[in-house]
Amino acid sequence: MKKLARFALWSWLLTKRLLKKPAFLILLLCVPLLSGAVALAARQESGTVRVALVCATDDPVARRSTDRLLHPDVLVRCEAYDSEAEAREALERGTVDAVWIFRDGVSEELENFVTGQRTRGLVLVVEREDNVFLRLAREQLAAAIYPEASFALFRDHLIKALGAPEDLPRETLEKYYSVDVTDSPIIVFTNADGSERQSSGDLLITPVRGLLSLLPVLAGLASCLYYYREEENGVYLRLSAGKRRALPLLNHMSALLPVAAAVLAALYAAGIATGFERELGLLLLYCLAVAAFCEVLRKLCRDESRLGVLIPVLMAAMLALCPIFAQLELPEALRRLFPPYYYLKGIYAGRFVWQLALYAAAAAALAMLLPERETMLPARAKREKKNI
Amino acid sequence: MKRFGTYLLLQGKRALRLLPRTLAVTLLLTLSAALILAVVSARRASDVSRRKTLVGVIAMDDNPYIMMGIHAMETFDAMRDEISFLMMEEEPEALQKLRAGEIAAYVVVPEGFVDMMYTDDVHPLRFVTLAGVTRLDSLLAAELAEAVAKLMIETQNAQYGAIHYAMDHVQGSDPYEADDVLIDRYFAIVFDRDKLFRLETVGLSGELSFGGYYLCGVSVAFLLLWGIGACPLFTRRSEEVGTLLSARGFGAVRQVAGEFGAFYFLMLCGALCAGAAGLFLLRRAGTAVPELPYVPAGALIRALAFLVLTLGSMQFFLYELVPENPGGILLQFLNAAVQSFAAGCFYPSSFFPDGLRRFGEHLPAGTALRYLGGVMSWSGGGVAGMLGWTALFLTLSAAVRRYRQTGRGA
Prior knowledge:
The complex is a heterodimer of chains A (about 400) and B (about 400).
Chain A (H helix, E strand, L loop, with lengths): L1 H18 L2 H21 L6 E7 L4 H10 L6 E6 L2 H10 L4 E5 L3 H9 L8 E5 L4 H31 L7 H8 L9 E5 L10 H31 L8 H30 L5 H26 L2 H18 L10 H4 L3 H8 L3 H20 L7 H10 L2
Parallel strand pairs in A: 1-2, 1-3
Antiparallel strand pairs in A: 3-4
Helix pairs in contact in A: 1-9, 2-8, 2-9, 3-6, 5-6, 8-9, 8-10, 8-11, 8-13, 9-10, 10-13, 10-14, 13-14
Chain B lengths: L1 H45 L6 E7 L4 H11 L8 E6 L2 H9 L5 E5 L3 H4 L8 E5 L6 H34 L9 H13 L5 E5 L8 H17 L4 H5 L3 H9 L4 H33 L12 H25 L5 H17 L10 H9 L1 H13 L7 H26 L1
Parallel strand pairs in B: 1-2, 1-3
Antiparallel strand pairs in B: 3-4
Helix pairs in contact in B: 1-10, 2-5, 5-6, 7-12, 7-14, 9-15, 10-11, 10-15, 11-12, 11-14, 11-15, 12-13, 12-14
């Protein structure tokens, strides 16, 4: 009991010295504010591909198709332009990614298309380059014209296969073709737990959890740098060797826990938290794993500047290897070196939580086994001599 | 001037102590990147399907239009290289694969999906992803699924209409007789839909390609992160020496100028090494950046020098603001993450809402991204904005230094 009380006292003292730094506190407060701001911004209207839409004809097929295209869409955002020249200029300026031009004779070209005759196309699509987003946008264009093509084919079929008169009025055709299809959405986006979600904007929020998961790692590494300094200053010299073995881990945890609290608040601010108990439990386990990971690095680097220059490399590696933005096809063994991998996967799959616990235990054992560098009182004197 | 020269030299010596390690880490980073590139290339060469994103499809209906839609989805030209659809039997199996990260998403086509569209009891397609995880490729797959769903509904519309017309007007014939012909014709127009438009590619002029944009984005994000590595240079600084120098007439402005000069030298050396190595790797890997072969090395070096100047001055200012650990490093990372995100280094800024895009464009990282983009696309790349930010950050750094020193002295 006495040992536990002493442990709690040490933890509190180590955490308190960080919480006394106003800059650190302000930064922690900024974390949920920033993620909340990203979530707020992501909810506004946006699109992946911007298209200049020109309807340079009164053709009814063209008019109906452009009307379908001008509604807001998650990925393709169309804007009406008055003339082809204006739209082409916007393309050259880079204001839009593509230009879609409906010219005269759209109905005739549609007729040619459905009857299998040679056609020059209903729409002229102008692009600066070919990429996956523009190819997808063309599929959206095809989907917008498809109802017209389908109706024209239906008419042609009635005339050719069922002997309908060629001058059959459109109203009669529509009576048979246009069954009242409900206005309800034909696709809904749900989460794996069954809850519904908004499709637009989610894309921008997706990396928020991944980026937040790097913050504890960074705090742990910063704590290592801080510990090097304190060690050199002889802060812990009065402690026995046995007590000093576990002290670095406790020291890192004291830096990690406030950051983890900020991360938890940020997850709620961004609206991506999956449940308080689950998030809290996983974050605590993650903090243990990160503390052990950082301690291993501290002992391997053995020097402040060595670890310092390694931090951007570690960050870049974690950005590339952990599931934050894109999943590169890289060997699993490389990904498994970093704790954020288990944390980010563990949110959705229980087996990664167990793997995270194993990782934490293995890293902590390794950290304990690695030899401690010598305490650097002479180094302090040397540094002071060098200092200008 | 002599005192400033001495101070600059001393700061340079401090930075030089960090330089070998910075260069060693650059080498390590380059080797790792080369290794990763080699592994990725080897994997892609050995198994083409591995690079695709897998999206599960669970069809609870054997309606021929559903099957046509799924087939159409699989053969969509737009995504053939990026997304592959995987037919699955049961939803629990798909859920398990989704949670294990084996598939990016799955689509459930419910029973009676097309038929129910004509009633109020709609059973929409369900596109399932993990909460808080929307990958771009799965979003694209969702768009395709929606487009195909509309296509299936229109097609069945026509089929029902033709049957009803035959019932009403064609006496004594089987209304379903001509059905197969109609379905065949619909299949034909679905697969020939690229003939609906004529494509004209005008080529790139004054604007970046997609690959070029991403190269610029990654470069700026990397430079933003690179500043974290210099933290020992700042956290080990003695403030007492600065105050003493200030008292002896060597003011905050000259101190900041001397220290920034040394920091800039360190950052530039690291960035040039990383840039040269990155360029070499990109050329070796057969880069998908069409602009790269046409940009002279001199222009890239000059661009890197300006980028490091602006982003370095910002990092210097942040270290001046919070010169201690762990706050200093956290601030650098938060700044790097927020600026990279808002400026469009991770996702093209055209994805963002207008307000966020305009905000991102005016940030230092946004200015840097536009400048680098301009250099890459030969459309200018004015340095005025970059120099403006640099001047502002250095002035603010000097002001913070002076405030701290006079505050302490008082």
